[in-house]
């Protein structure tokens, strides 16, 4: 009996120690959101030594934080139901997988949890002050502002901006993941995230017509799918809560995809989404030594190049797939026609490899204009990147339900990969497309004279 009593006491002690050693993100109920919560900021440290078991830290106890390494702060936003962000664990794991760093989760759920959005918004500067006090202690321990990286989601992006302002823009980097728009749209720079708040700022705008901020806020501002409706998100209120938050959250999941080796999302600096879709910006306007910007963690590869611009800011656009990891593969479809009359319409192109895998791109965002002996270059976006294409199909459509069916007489079609320009370009000569009829053919290598 004595042994049993001792064993139970030991188990309780172990459990108590575990709870104390591995603090978790604050979980609150919807009731808490209704009655409101006072602000309390918890800081939880993760490193490669403790990747799954957080260590509670604060401005008087830095714990195992190594000030000689990069420190990345993750700052969440508004929490209308009190639940922890579902992406926190994946983001911590992903960051630690790509670099040996300190990852500090900033848990201000007590304060962010409320059904009244402006109550949470009003606490953002107070959260920033807490973080300033903590970073001051890091600096006293000989940390460098160059090594401070803040990832802010929604309201968290503006919190990161407020911290950056208190250090006169000397923080190493801020990433804003769909910075909050309501109550911040139209505000002056001192009241929101601003390009001067850090040495480098990259922003992903995924919900500019609702919860996100529309205008540029960083050195490079990424607009997936134009920053509006994200593929795979519900288009009607029948989608429930996902209808309201899916577009907004997509910025986080796109960033997460950059931490995985199987997906590198390339973006294209451009004046507008329309120009990008029309293939006007795929060269990135850079010298041959500089590749196009990459979304997410490695976006700062463009830092030095942007410094040469005046002002050092640019907008970049790209499209995504509906599902993780969201990568899209870009090709140009160059078409020269010999119709006597002008034809306007859209093209659907399908690719198939020898194994039977297929991928399709509908180039129908706006009608293309085909004139005799004029080359039209259409930007095609595929969910898969087929290395060796065995068959191609083309379908031409004017979009007209009634009326005559037209033919598109193709003198030459050429397919070329943007992601892999070294790949052989594929061609087909002398082809006639009947409207709304899929025409399948085997491509051949383009003549060197045509390259």
From TrEMBL:
<feature type="domain" description="Lipase">
    <location>
        <begin position="37"/>
        <end position="326"/>
    </location>
</feature>
<dbReference type="GO" id="GO:0005886">
    <property type="term" value="C:plasma membrane"/>
</dbReference>
<dbReference type="InterPro" id="IPR029058">
    <property type="entry name" value="AB_hydrolase_fold"/>
</dbReference>
<keyword id="KW-0472">Membrane</keyword>
<keyword id="KW-0443">Lipid metabolism</keyword>
<dbReference type="InterPro" id="IPR016272">
    <property type="entry name" value="Lipase_LIPH"/>
</dbReference>
<dbReference type="GO" id="GO:0016042">
    <property type="term" value="P:lipid catabolic process"/>
</dbReference>
<protein>
    <submittedName>
        <fullName>Lipase member H isoform X1</fullName>
    </submittedName>
</protein>
<comment type="similarity">
    <text>Belongs to the AB hydrolase superfamily. Lipase family.</text>
</comment>
<feature type="binding site">
    <location>
        <position position="192"/>
    </location>
    <ligand>
        <name>Ca(2+)</name>
    </ligand>
</feature>
<dbReference type="InterPro" id="IPR033906">
    <property type="entry name" value="Lipase_N"/>
</dbReference>
<keyword id="KW-0325">Glycoprotein</keyword>
<dbReference type="GO" id="GO:0052689">
    <property type="term" value="F:carboxylic ester hydrolase activity"/>
</dbReference>
<dbReference type="GO" id="GO:0008201">
    <property type="term" value="F:heparin binding"/>
</dbReference>
<keyword id="KW-1003">Cell membrane</keyword>
<dbReference type="GO" id="GO:0004620">
    <property type="term" value="F:phospholipase activity"/>
</dbReference>
<dbReference type="InterPro" id="IPR000734">
    <property type="entry name" value="TAG_lipase"/>
</dbReference>
<comment type="function">
    <text>Hydrolyzes specifically phosphatidic acid (PA) to produce 2-acyl lysophosphatidic acid (LPA; a potent bioactive lipid mediator) and fatty acid. Does not hydrolyze other phospholipids, like phosphatidylserine (PS), phosphatidylcholine (PC) and phosphatidylethanolamine (PE) or triacylglycerol (TG).</text>
</comment>
<feature type="active site" description="Charge relay system">
    <location>
        <position position="178"/>
    </location>
</feature>
<dbReference type="InterPro" id="IPR013818">
    <property type="entry name" value="Lipase"/>
</dbReference>
<keyword id="KW-0442">Lipid degradation</keyword>
<keyword id="KW-0964">Secreted</keyword>
<keyword id="KW-0106">Calcium</keyword>
<feature type="signal peptide">
    <location>
        <begin position="1"/>
        <end position="16"/>
    </location>
</feature>
<feature type="active site" description="Nucleophile">
    <location>
        <position position="154"/>
    </location>
</feature>
<dbReference type="GO" id="GO:0005615">
    <property type="term" value="C:extracellular space"/>
</dbReference>
<keyword id="KW-0479">Metal-binding</keyword>
<feature type="binding site">
    <location>
        <position position="197"/>
    </location>
    <ligand>
        <name>Ca(2+)</name>
    </ligand>
</feature>
<feature type="binding site">
    <location>
        <position position="194"/>
    </location>
    <ligand>
        <name>Ca(2+)</name>
    </ligand>
</feature>
<dbReference type="GO" id="GO:0046872">
    <property type="term" value="F:metal ion binding"/>
</dbReference>
<feature type="active site" description="Charge relay system">
    <location>
        <position position="248"/>
    </location>
</feature>
<dbReference type="Pfam" id="PF00151">
    <property type="entry name" value="Lipase"/>
</dbReference>
<keyword id="KW-1015">Disulfide bond</keyword>
<keyword id="KW-0732">Signal</keyword>
<keyword id="KW-0378">Hydrolase</keyword>
<dbReference type="GO" id="GO:0006654">
    <property type="term" value="P:phosphatidic acid biosynthetic process"/>
</dbReference>
């Amino acid at each position: 009996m004595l042994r049993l009593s001792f064993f139970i006491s030991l188990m309780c002690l172990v459990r108590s120690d575990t709870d104390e050693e591995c603090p978790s993100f604050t979980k609150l109920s919807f009731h808490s959101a209704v009655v409101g919560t006072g602000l309390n900021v918890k800081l939880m440290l993760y490193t490669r030594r403790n990747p799954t078991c957080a260590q509670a830290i604060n401005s008087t106890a830095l714990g195992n934080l190594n000030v000689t390494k990069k420190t990345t702060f993750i700052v969440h936003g508004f929490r209308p139901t009190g639940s922890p962000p579902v992406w926190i664990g994946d983001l911590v794991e992903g960051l630690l997988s790509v670099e040996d760093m300190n990852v500090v989760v900033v848990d201000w759920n007590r304060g962010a949890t409320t059904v009244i959005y402006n109550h949470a918004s009003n606490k953002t500067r107070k959260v920033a002050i807490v973080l300033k006090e903590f970073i001051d202690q890091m600096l006293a321990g000989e940390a460098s502002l160059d090594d401070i990286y803040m990832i802010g989601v929604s309201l968290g992006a503006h919190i990161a901006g407020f911290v950056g302002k208190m250090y006169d823009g000397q923080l190493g980097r801020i990433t804003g993941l769909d910075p909050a728009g309501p109550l911040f749209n139209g505000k002056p720079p001192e009241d929101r995230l601003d390009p001067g708040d850090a040495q480098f700022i990259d922003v992903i705008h995924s919900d500019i017509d609702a919860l996100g901020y529309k205008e540029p806020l960083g050195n490079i501002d990424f607009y997936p799918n134009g920053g509006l409706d994200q593929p795979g998100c519900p288009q009607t209120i029948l989608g429930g809560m996902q209808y309201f938050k899916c577009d907004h959250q997509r910025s986080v999941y796109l960033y997460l995809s950059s931490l995985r080796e199987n997906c590198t999302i390339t973006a294209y600096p451009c004046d507008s989404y329309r120009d990008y879709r029309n293939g006007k910006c795929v060269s990135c306007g850079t010298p041959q030594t500089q590749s196009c910007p990459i979304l997410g963690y490695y976006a700062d590869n463009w830092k030095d190049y942007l410094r040469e611009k005046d002002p050092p800011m640019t907008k970049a656009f790209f499209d995504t797939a509906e599902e993780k990891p969201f990568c899209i593969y870009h090709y140009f479809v160059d078409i020269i026609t010999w119709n006597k009359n002008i034809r306007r319409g859209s093209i659907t192109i399908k690719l198939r490899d020898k194994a039977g895998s297929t991928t399709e791109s509908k180039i129908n965002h706006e009608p293309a204009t085909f004139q005799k002996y004029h080359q039209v270059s259409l930007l095609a976006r595929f969910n898969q990147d087929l290395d060796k294409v065995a068959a191609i199909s083309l379908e031409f459509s004017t979009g007209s339900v009634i009326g005559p069916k037209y033919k598109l007489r193709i003198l030459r079609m050429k397919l070329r990969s943007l992601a892999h320009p070294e790949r052989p370009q594929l061609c087909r000569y002398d082809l006639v497309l009947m409207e709304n009829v899929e025409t399948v053919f085997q491509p051949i290598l383009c003549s060197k004279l045509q390259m």
